[in-house]
Every structure is written in structure tokens, then in C-alpha cells.
Design a protein that fits this description.
The complex is a heterodimer of chains A (571) and B (499). Chain A contains 30 helices and three strands. In chain A, strands 1-2 form a two-stranded antiparallel ribbon. Chain A has 571 residues and is mainly alpha-helical. Chain A starts with a helix and ends in a 5-residue tail after the last helix. Chain A has two domains: 274 residues, no CATH class; 131 residues, no CATH class. Chain B folds into two domains: 99 residues, Immunoglobulin-like, CATH 2.60.40; 355 residues, TolB, C-terminal domain (Neuraminidase). Chain B is globular and about 75 Å long. Chain B is mainly beta and 499 residues long. In chain B, strands 1, 2, 4, 5, 7, 8 and 9 form a seven-stranded mixed beta sheet that branches. The chains are: A mainly alpha (571), B mainly beta (499). At the A-B interface, helix 3, helix 20, helix 22 and strand 3 of A face helix 1, strand 18 and helix 3 of B. Strand 3 of chain A pairs antiparallel with strand 18 of chain B, so a sheet runs across the interface.
Chain lengths: 571, 499
């Protein structure tokens, strides 16, 4: 009874964790490369564990519907539980020990955090679970079909399966060797485990670096600028737990085992799981922005008090498309908060949302470039293929569009996918700026700086963006040039509130010699005076800058002045 | 032994893949009993309609558009009157042995192809076309670098060799095996062979663990070509056809990005010269280093008596001190050559071979035909990197005879897409170039038959699965012919990095 209660608790926990991470699973499918056709298959198969990665990549496509992908994953874990029980010959309460390997695999799915945007392990989401299941099946078959005297045949099979199962084949040999009394054959097999990778490299993988062959399949989290060891921990623990179950599993049919296993499994996952609201909201916003669902983008950011730079950028694109950028943007906060990143990863707006942002600002060459830069490193996953398709459609490259959509149409959930037509804004903005040669402009501020210079454009949309981003830059010179152009192109239209706020502020603090005289609402003027009075009062009372910022937020957090004074990011 | 191992691995992969997708069955379908005649050539991919191909080329597998057709049947008729049908789904894939038998009986003649396509449950029959089989074979191997059409970032890249009489592709070198600095990364490029053979060859490794890998009479070594008096180490190479000498350009190369222009990328040199490297003596001498002008892309004539290269024309005084990005579109290259004395290793005076600038053009990448009669080169409106310019084309001019007018290269070039990096096969009957005509982004290899100054319609390097060209998201850089494969393995090359 206790066993079943513990199992039920753990199953509920797994279901809850997968549900809570549904947006992560959707993002996993979007950021996971699986390409139809022989080139991708051959590329993966030229490396050990490649077949598992291929299978993993294929299955990851099902995360398009997180409930479907999650169910497949849960079904694999259920099989792992069942097959593991048989393979390790666990009986009674000891079967609960299989909670621990499942917990390790569950943790490996939910602990990635911002690595999800940059890690390069193909098929990661399923390959470890599938390979572990195959390893347990082998173990079950080996232990149930042959006597111990014939296990050496299975040791050889295990070693020969290294190109397919990678480190799991070594784990199989160790688990089999340690499951019974050790003889010279078992010792020989254990010694062989240490040389398997080297033998395989000599025979099959001589064009690979030895580091890429040793412990093949064990996910390594490293790219040119980042490295993480703790993300590999669940896999090391999985290996150790499997060996310990082999050694002691049959002696642990005790009453306390189910409770301890369930608690340990749950604690381990909870401790390692990456949980952050902005992390999820960014994913939701990117997903909505891809579908041009701007209302949802605005809804998500409206409910978030501490948005990141990616969220702010997407919000401003949404307002450009929905209208009211210069009346609403600062009311919805333009002061960004840093992403919560325990690894200090080099992940930023560029990896999270910049390709979408470049596209919607009509900067198609930059969008194409950044999509390529990201895809070359992290794989041509659906998010990049979709974005490249949209760019190809916008630039009229029909053959290129066909290449990308053809690849996407082999995805089970993108069979009938076609890119949305470019919006009016994209079509207008892509012709709003002259061609220039630029260097490698890979910084968060590139968009802000570039757009703030569109102050000679004859496009109404571009003039609004140039004015807005000159305000974001707090650049009085560009502000005046942009404002002049904006006013010329928007004659007879209402003077937006935030533009009024900026106009008053720059007239006061950074006036031009030849002043523009524009009508300003009295209420805005009064509020501006009140803003400075309040600010001076706070300063006189000896409050520190952070305290002043907090003090003034309720009254003036919706104004441009508040952003101008308290916004910390400099472009 | 090594070749055998490669072969076994590639076969294992092949069979695993074949089993997985169940697509390798040879199928001889029946010709449709009734069909509607379409009075046009079929829109097959790759376009092999009425192409002239070598007598030893790999099967010209092709397909009908999968979004329009559901099935196809091709009936092949060889000059000896034999017929056979092929087709599975929308693809026509010939078994290699059948194909080479067909080529053997068709040398100097044609193979007739009748094609039927099933569209919305109705069979259509297209105008028949031919594969014309030239008497002359093609060099058995080509090599190229496979890399994504990248901007700044890259990860994996490889120099690969392909047996063009079959579909076997193997790695010559890759950039991961010796990369020892993840942040720097490693780039491999510019493979070059002496006289189409591989006992004397080279390629570069840049950034981490950098150097030029030279194979000298089959012995591999890594050298550093940078000297105090050169602006960089060797960049674009050309082996002398008989001597152990390699002409290189030395370049300070930069890359910049268009914010709106469809060409997207500009690659240009801020400085460049031409040097000569003596492989035996490990010595470097300067061939041409005009401080105000840019010299690049040296290329030996097949007799080794001339070194061809490109050089910019002088810029107006007012532009000379500006940032090169402000006048990159004014940089134009002419083709020059210098005679070379094989005994003294001395160069003669510079001769202008082709004044491209006078036509408001820029000419690069000269290649003289093996018989010395023709000069191939790439040409565009400006600059030195025409593979990134949509107006880049391949041009051919005679070097001797009364008729010095340019040859018509329309059959090789594409309209509105970059065609560049031309090269000759060792018998001078096949011209190969790299072209972005497929979709303006991913370059592929195209080959044309050349005979007495006439060029036939270009065909794409055939692949076992015609879809391979659509699914491989890599570019084919710097295609070079070879009469034999590179005999060293990736691992053997990697060992010189440990020394």
C-alpha cells in the first residue's frame, strides 16, 4: 500500500512538473534540430551515439504539443520503471528504487534554464531516456536468457554496441558485471570498459577527436563562451544510481525504501529544476510574436512587473503593430530587469528574441544573418527555419522559401505550415533605410542605435520608431532630428503623450538653439513639474537613488521622465 | 587498408540508412498504358535535360517536384536499342552498375529519356530528352570545402573529396579534430594540389592550432608562412605544375555586411600581395607587392612558364585615404601575368592580360586551360569575391589564335545568381564552377562540357538521392579536380599538430 502511495505521489509529481514546464517543452521542439534527409542522418551517424540522437531529435518534434511529447516521455519512463524492475530483479518495496533513475532523467529535462537557447546536443530531450531504456532491456535480456558463465558474450555485445548506445553500453557492462559475484571474466569486462572508446576511435572514428568519442552520448554543456558541469550531474548520478541498484537493489526490499526514494527523487528534481517567471514569459512572448499575435504579447507583458529586455523589445514591436507605441509604451515599463541566470551564461536578447525583432523591424539582412549565426551553432531547428522562411518570403526569394518550407513540411506538425505574409510595418520599414556596410554588430543595443538613426525616412512607421528609440537612447540630438521628421510626417494627428513628455524634458534640459514650438497638454506639463518637485523632495530627504526610484514608481513609473532618470541601461 | 576502412564505414552508414527509409529497392515500373502528352520538357531536379556528361560520371538521378507529382516513370533507351524503366515515387535513381553499363554503350552518342509523371491521378508524358555522353571522361575526384553560408559564426566544417564516378564522399580534414581552443575555434580552407595529383598538396588551418599543412612527396608537415616582410601568412595558393613551388597571395581580408542590399556580404582585402614559397627550402620571396595596389589569386599556367594573378587599378587620389568600406564598390581587378624562368626561378615583367576595368568590370580567379589555349576567370562589376555577388559570372577568353573574342559562357552561367571559382579538368574538356543559382544562398557544383571553345549546358554534380541537394544546408566552396584521392586520413593529418 505504501509502495503504491509513493508511486502515485511520484507519478503526480512528474505530471505536475511536465505541465508546469509545458512552455519549456514547446521551446525545446522549436530549438531542437531534426532535419529530414540523408545529410543530417549521416552527420549524426558519423559519431558514436548518433543514432540515439537521431531518434531523440525525431521524438522531440512531438513537443510541438507539449501534452503529446510529455506523454511519450512519461511512457518511456514508465517502461524504464517496469523494465528496470525486471533487469535489476527488484522485488517488493525495492521496486521503488526505479524512481531514482526516472527522477534523474526528469531533472535533466527541467534543469537547463537559459542553456536551452544555446546548447548544441542534438536529440537531447529523448536520447538519454531512449538509450537508458535500451540499456535496461539489454540487461533484462542478458540476465534472463543466459547463465552467468555466458555473460562474457553480453560483455562483448555491450562493447560492440558502443557506437549505438555510447556511455550506456558501458553502463550496461558494468551493471551486468556487478549484478552477480565477480569472477575474472567480470574483472576483464570492467577493464575493457576503460578501453572501449579508444578501440572504437581507432576502428571507426579516427576522424574525431578522442574527447568526442570517450563517454559518447553523455551530454556536455559547452560552447565557445560557456561551460557548465552541474548540468551533467543528473547523468552521472543516473549512472551511479544504476550501479548501486545493481549491487544492492535486491537487498533493499524494506518498508522505508519507497518513501525515501520518492522523497529523494522529488527533492532532487525540485532542487535542480530551473524555475523563473521571466524565463517562461519570454518563451510565451516569442511564441506569440512568431504568430503575429500582438494582443497576447501585450497581455503577457502587462502582467509582468519585471520584464527582461527581450520582453520589452517584443512589447514595443507589439505596440508598433497594434498602434499607440508613443502613448502606451512607457506606461507598460521600459526599464528592463536582468535575466535570472545562475550560470552567468552569455545568453541575451540576441539568442532569445532578436531574430524575430529584426524581422519585424524590417531589418531583414540582419534577421537572416542572426538566424544563420544562431542556427549554425545550435542547429537548423524549426524556429530558425520558420524565421528564415518568413525572411525569404519578405525578400521575394521564392526558391529559398521553398527550400526552408520543404524541410519544415517533413515535420509532423508543420506539414501544412506556410509563413505569414509580411505585415504592413515590415514591408514599409524594410524600404525605410539606406543600404550601408556594417561590421559585426552583435550587441543588444544594435537595434536601438540603428533605428534611432532613421530620422530622415519618409515612412511614417519608421519616423515613429526613430523617435521612440532616440527617446530610449536618451539622445537629445537624435531626438530633435527624429521629432522634426515625425511632426512633418504626422501633421494633423494627435501629439502622443510620451512624445510630449520627452519634448518637455528635452526642451527643459537639452534645448536646441532653434526651438520647435509644439502644443503640449497642460496636465502633462503640470505632471512634469510635479515629477521634479517630488524628485527634489526625495533627494532632500536623503533617500538613496534606489529608494527614490521605488518611492516615485507608483506616481511616475508610467512616464518617460521616470525611464529617463531611473533606467540603467545605456545604449 | 585505410581506403578499405573508409569504404566499410561509408557502406555501413549507407545500408543502415537504406534499411531505415526503405528506399533502396530497384524498381522497374511499367510505362503507363495511357497518358496525356505535354509538349514541354519536364521540370526535373536537378535539370539534366539535354546535358552533355562525361563517360564515367555517377548516375544522373533526378526527381519531379514532390508537391506536384505523386509518381514518375522514366524509360531509358540506349543506342544499342535496349530499354529499361526506372522510377520510384517521384524519383528516378539508377543503380550504379546499370548506369555505367548504359554509359559504356553510349559513349559519343546519347541516352534517350522518356518521362511520365502522375499528377492528380493523371499520367502526363513529357517531351523526351537526352543525356549526351561525351567521349572524354572527367577526373575521378573533386574536392571542396563544406560550410554553411556563414557570416561570422561557424562550427563544423570539412574539406571533403567526392568520387564523381560514384557517390562516395569522404573527409580529407575537419576543423574539430585538432581544435584546441573553443573560443577561437578553427577554420580549414584553401586546399590546393600540384597538377591534379595529391602527393603534393596543401590546405590551411587558421585560428587555434594554425598553420599550413603541406604534403610534399606524400610526407605531411605543418609550416608557418608568415615572414617579417609579408603582410600575412599564405592565403590563396597555386602549386607550380612541376616545381616544388607554391605561389600564394598574402591578404588582410575583411568582411562587412549590407544592411539592405541583397548581396548581404562583402569580402574585401585591405592589403594583399603575391609571394612565392619554395617547399624544399622553406623560403618565401615576394613576387608582387605594390604598396598602393592589391594583388591576389595567383595561378600558374599549366606549363609553369607564367604566373597569372589579379591586381586592382589605381584609385582616384581622393579615395585613397578613406575607409575601404566607403569605396569598396570602386575596387576593380585586372588580370596580369609574369613570365617565370624554370631554371633561375626569376620572374619577368608584368603583362596586362585582360583589362576588365576598362569595361567597368572586375576579373578574378584566373585559370589557364591544360592546353594553354583558354583562360577562365570570374567576373563581376567590382571586388574580388564574386561568389557573394549576384552578377558574378564565369568568363573565358582565348590566349592564342586569331579569334581573341570571348567565348559564349551562357550555358555555364546563371542569370542573376553568383557563379564563380571556375576550374578545368585535367583533360581540359570539363569546366567546374561553384554557383548559387539554386536559391541564391547555398552554392552547388556545376559542370559543363567544353570542346574547341564551345560550352554545353551545365549540370549539377549528381547525388545518390536528388533531394540531397535540397536537404544539405552547406555550401560547396572552392571545388577542385583531382585525378586521384587524397591518400592520407584525417587522423594522419592531425598528427602533425602534435609535433
Amino acid at each position: 500500500m505504501l509502495l503504491y502511495a509513493c508511486l502515485l505521489t511520484f507519478i503526480s509529481f512528474v505530471a505536475a512538473i511536465l505541465f508546469f514546464n509545458r512552455e519549456v517543452l514547446y521551446t525545446a521542439h522549436e530549438r531542437s534540430e531534426y532535419l529530414y534527409g540523408s545529410p543530417f542522418f549521416h552527420t549524426l551517424l558519423s559519431k558514436p551515439f548518433g543514432l540515439m540522437q537521431y531518434v531523440g531529435g525525431w521524438l522531440t518534434q512531438f513537443f510541438y504539443v507539449p501534452a503529446v511529447g510529455g506523454s511519450i516521455l512519461a511512457a518511456i519512463w514508465a517502461l524504464i520503471f517496469f523494465v528496470g524492475m525486471k533487469a535489476f530483479r527488484l522485488q517488493g518495496s525495492a521496486v521503488a528504487l526505479m524512481i531514482l533513475p526516472v527522477a534523474c532523467l526528469l531533472t535533466s529535462i527541467v534543469d537547463l534554464g537559459y542553456w536551452i537557447y544555446i546548447f548544441t546536443v542534438r536529440g537531447y530531450w529523448f536520447s538519454q531516456s531512449v538509450a537508458y531504456l535500451l540499456m535496461l532491456l539489454l540487461l533484462w535480456v542478458a540476465r534472463s536468457t543466459t547463465s552467468r558463465d555466458w555473460h562474457f558474450v553480453w560483455y562483448l555485445i555491450g562493447i560492440c554496441l558502443y557506437p549505438v548506445l555510447g556511455w550506456f553500453s558501458l553502463l550496461f557492462v558494468l551493471c551486468l558485471a556487478l549484478s552477480d559475484k565477480i569472477s575474472w571474466r567480470e574483472l576483464l569486462a570492467i577493464v575493457f570498459v576503460f578501453f572501449t572508446a579508444h578501440i572504437c576511435r581507432t576502428l571507426l572514428y579516427s576522424n574525431l577527436k578522442i574527447d568526442d568519442v570517450v563517454m559518447a552520448g553523455l551530454p556536455k554543456f559547452e560552447n565557445p563562451s560557456d561551460k557548465s558541469d552541474y548540468l551533467s550531474a543528473p547523468f552521472w548520478i543516473l549512472g551511479v544510481v544504476s550501479i548501486l541498484i545493481s549491487l544492492f537493489g535486491r537487498h533493499l526490499a524494506k518498508r522505508f525504501v519507497p518513501i525515501v526514494s520518492a522523497i529523494l527523487g522529488i527533492l532532487f528534481t525540485v532542487l535542480f529544476m530551473y524555475s523563473d517567471r521571466n524565463y517562461i514569459d519570454e518563451m510565451r512572448m516569442v511564441r506569440s510574436a512568431e504568430k503575429d499575435n500582438w494582443k497576447e504579447v501585450i497581455d503577457i507583458v502587462s502582467e509582468n512587473p519585471n520584464p527582461t529586455v527581450s520582453m520589452i523589445m517584443l512589447k514595443n514591436i507589439a505596440l508598433m503593430n497594434e498602434g499607440g507605441l508613443l502613448d502606451r509604451s512607457f506606461k507598460m515599463n521600459n526599464i528592463d530587469f536582468n535575466i535570472c541566470n545562475p550560470d552567468s551564461l552569455h545568453v541575451s536578447f540576441l539568442e532569445i528574441a532578436a531574430p524575430v525583432a529584426y524581422y519585424h523591424y524590417g531589418m531583414l539582412n540582419e534577421a537572416i544573418r542572426l538566424n544563420f549565426e544562431n542556427a549554425i551553432q545550435a542547429g537548423f531547428s524549426p524556429i530558425y527555419l520558420k524565421m528564415l522562411s518568413r525572411c525569404a518570403l519578405a525578400t521575394g526569394d521564392a526558391k529559398l522559401l521553398q527550400r526552408y518550407t520543404n524541410l519544415l513540411h517533413h515535420h509532423p506538425f508543420y506539414r501544412h505550415w506556410n509563413p505569414l505574409m509580411p505585415t504592413h510595418a515590415v514591408s514599409e520599414l524594410r524600404n525605410a533605410f539606406p543600404d550601408e556596410l556594417t561590421g559585426v554588430e552583435n550587441s543588444d543595443s544594435y537595434i536601438v542605435n540603428s533605428i534611432s538613426m532613421w530620422n530622415k525616412s519618409e515612412s511614417k512607421v519608421a519616423s515613429e520608431q526613430a523617435l521612440f528609440y532616440s527617446m530610449i537612447r536618451r539622445d537629445s540630438r537624435r531626438f530633435w532630428a527624429s521629432l522634426r521628421n515625425f511632426v512633418n510626417l504626422h501633421q494633423g494627428e494627435q501629439f502622443p503623450v510620451h512624445a510630449q513628455e520627452a519634448y518637455i524634458m528635452y526642451t527643459d534640459k537639452a534645448p536646441e538653439a532653434k526651438r520647435m514650438m509644439l502644443p503640449v497638454e497642460q496636465s502633462v506639463l503640470d505632471r512634469y513639474k510635479s515629477f521634479w518637485t517630488s524628485l527634489e523632495s526625495c533627494a532632500r530627504n536623503g533617500l538613496k537613488p534606489d529608494q527614490i526610484e521605488e518611492e516615485m514608481r507608483p506616481s511616475f513609473g508610467d512616464t518617460y521622465w521616470y525611464y529617463n532618470i531611473f533606467g540603467k541601461r545605456r545604449y | 587498408m585505410i581506403t578499405m576502412k573508409r569504404y566499410i564505414i561509408s557502406r555501413l552508414h549507407f545500408w543502415a540508412f537504406s534499411l531505415l527509409i526503405l528506399s533502396s529497392c530497384v524498381h522497374h515500373p511499367d510505362v503507363p498504358s495511357s497518358s496525356t502528352e505535354v509538349k514541354s520538357l519536364p521540370a526535373i531536379f536537378p535539370d539534366y535535360c539535354d546535358v552533355t556528361v562525361p563517360s564515367n560520371i555517377a548516375p544522373l538521378n533526378f526527381m519531379l517536384p514532390a508537391n506536384e507529382y505523386s509518381e514518375c516513370v522514366a524509360r531509358i533507351t540506349t543506342p544499342d536499342g535496349k530499354q529499361q524503366t526506372y522510377g520510384s515515387g517521384v524519383k528516378v535513381q539508377f543503380p550504379e552498375s546499370d548506369w555505367h553499363d548504359m554509359l559504356d554503350v553510349s559513349k559519343g552518342s546519347s541516352i534517350k529519356v522518356e518521362l511520365w509523371g502522375k499528377k492528380k491521378d493523371q499520367w502526363l508524358s513529357f517531351t523526351p530528352f537526352e543525356f549526351r555522353i561525351a567521349e572524354q571522361p572527367i577526373d575521378e575526384y573533386v574536392s571542396y570545402r563544406l560550410i554553411e553560408p556563414s557570416y561570422v559564426a561557424w562550427t563544423f566544417m570539412e574539406i571533403a573529396q567526392r568520387n564523381v564516378t560514384s557517390f562516395e564522399e569522404t573527409q580529407i580534414f575537419n576543423n574539430e579534430i585538432t581544435s584546441n581552443d573553443r573560443q577561437k575555434g578553427q577554420c580549414v580552407n584553401c586546399h590546393s594540389y600540384q597538377n591534379y595529383k595529391t602527393d603534393n598538396m596543401l590546405f590551411h588551418v587558421r585560428l587555434s592550432n594554425s598553420g599550413t599543412i603541406i604534403v610534399n612527396d606524400g610526407k605531411i608537415s605543418k609550416v608557418n608562412l608568415k615572414r617579417d616582410y609579408t603582410i600575412s601568412s599564405g592565403v590563396y595558393p597555386s602549386w607550380h605544375p612541376t616545381e616544388k613551388l607554391v605561389a600564394f597571395s598574402t591578404d588582410i581580408t575583411r568582411q562587412a555586411f549590407h544592411t539592405a542590399h541583397p548581396n548581404k556580404i562583402e569580402v574585401y582585402d585591405e592589403a594583399s600581395d603575391v609571394i612565392l614559397y619554395d617547399v624544399e627550402k622553406d623560403s618565401v620571396s615576394v613576387v608582387s607587392n605594390d604598396p598602393d595596389l592589391l594583388e591576389v589569386y595567383p595561378s600558374w599556367s599549366p606549363d609553369g612558364k607564367y604566373l597569372y594573378y589579379c591586381k586592382t587599378v589605381p584609385l582616384p587620389e581622393e579615395l585613397r585615404h578613406l575607409d575601404i568600406r566607403s569605396f569598396y564598390s570602386k575596387l576593380q581587378y585586372n588580370l596580369y601575368r609574369r613570365s617565370f624562368d624554370l631554371t633561375s626561378h626569376q620572374f619577368g615583367d608584368e603583362e596586362l592580360v585582360y583589362d576588365a576595368a576598362s569595361e567597368d568590370k572586375s576579373a578574378t580567379l584566373p585559370r589557364v586551360s591544360p592546353d594553354g589555349r583558354y583562360l577562365l576567370f570570374a567576373r563581376g562589376q567590382y571586388g574580388c569575391f564574386h561568389i557573394r555577388h549576384s552578377d558574378g559570372d564565369v568568363a573565358c577568353m582565348p590566349l592564342e589564335g586569331d579569334d581573341r573574342s570571348e567565348r559564349d559562357m551562357t550555358n555555364l552561367n546563371s542569370e542573376g545568381f553568383a557563379d564563380s571559382y571556375p576550374t578545368w579538368s585535367s583533360n581540359g574538356h570539363w569546366i567546374m564552377c561553384s554557383s548559387r543559382r539554386g536559391d541564391s544562398n547555398f552554392s552547388r557544383i556545376y559542370i559543363s562540357y567544353f570542346n574547341n571553345g564551345k560550352v554545353e549546358k551545365a549540370f549539377m554534380l549528381p547525388q545518390e538521392d536528388p533531394d540531397h541537394n535540397a536537404y544539405r544546408l552547406k555550401c560547396y566552396n572552392r571545388p577542385e579536380f583531382m585525378v586521384e584521392p587524397v591518400k592520407h586520413t584525417v587522423e594522419e593529418f592531425s598528427r602533425v599538430f602534435d609535433k
